[in-house]
């Protein structure tokens, strides 16, 4: 798949000197969906739209930046090669619990998006993030997107959650 990092290490998140607080994400991982989760049908619809916009083919790779608890990843990884990386080991543990029922070895990696992304250059057909890119240095995101994007073309899809008051 072209990964340049080891699969998910279920140990504590390593200390990082700057950027978003991984401790905050680790602490809220088990209750995140109760507070900020999305309905399952919305997550499925988001994944379907990502696949449609990205013009995905069966052998294509989706890279998800910040999969969190895996609410959308569970739908993305069903029919395509999938890699997700996140700053928070706690969030990835929740994602792993969700994905392992459908996939024997989901590709989840503990990594900081403000560092080099854990994917060999030129591999990703779709780079997707629904709730993380606003936390990352934008120039770094642009550099990494161009580095990991498939040489045959790629689509960057990012979003945010808006809630009604």
Brief summary of the model shown:
The chain has 165 residues and is of the alpha/beta class.
Q: What are the defining features of this structure?
A:
13% strand; 5-stranded parallel beta sheet; disordered N terminus; alpha/beta; 165 residues; 5 strands
In words, what does this structure look like?
Helices cover 32% and strands 13% of the residues. The chain is built from 6 helices and 5 strands; from the N terminus they run H-H-H-E-H-E-H-E-E-H-E. Strands 3-2-1-4-5 form a 5-stranded parallel beta sheet, covered by helices on one side. Helix 6 (138-148) links the parallel strand 4 and strand 5. The model is unreliable at 1-18 (pLDDT under 50).
Helix and strand run: HHHEHEHEEHE
- Per DSSP E runs of 2 or more residues, the count of β-strands stands at 5
DSSP strand (E) fraction? 5-15%
The geometry reads as: globular
Average pLDDT, to the nearest integer?
A: 78
Radius of gyration: 15 Å
N→C terminal distance: 42 Å
Describe the secondary-structure layout:
Layout: H1 22-28, H2 32-36, H3 40-53, E1 61-65, H4 73-76, E2 81-86, H5 89-99, E3 108-110, E4 126-129, H6 138-148, E5 155-158
Parallel strand pairs: 1-2, 1-4, 2-3, 4-5
């Amino acid at each position: 798949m072209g990964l340049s990092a080891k699969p998910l290490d279920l140990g504590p998140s390593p200390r990082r000197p700057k950027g978003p607080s991984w401790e905050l994400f680790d602490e809220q991982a088990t209750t995140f969906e109760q507070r900020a989760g999305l309905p399952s049908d919305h997550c499925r619809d988001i994944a379907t739209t990502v696949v449609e916009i990205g013009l995905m083919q069966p052998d294509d790779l989706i890279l998800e930046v910040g999969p969190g608890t895996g609410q959308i990843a569970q739908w993305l990884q069903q029919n395509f090669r999938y890699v997700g990386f996140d700053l928070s080991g706690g969030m990835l543990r929740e994602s792993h619990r969700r994905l392992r029922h459908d996939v024997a070895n989901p590709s989840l990696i503990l990594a900081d998006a403000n560092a080099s992304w854990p994917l060999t250059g030129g591999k990703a057909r779709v780079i997707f993030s629904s709730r993380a890119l606003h936390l990352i240095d934008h120039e770094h995101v642009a550099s990494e997107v161009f580095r990991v994007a498939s040489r045959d073309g790629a689509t960057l899809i990012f979003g945010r959650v808006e809630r009604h008051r």
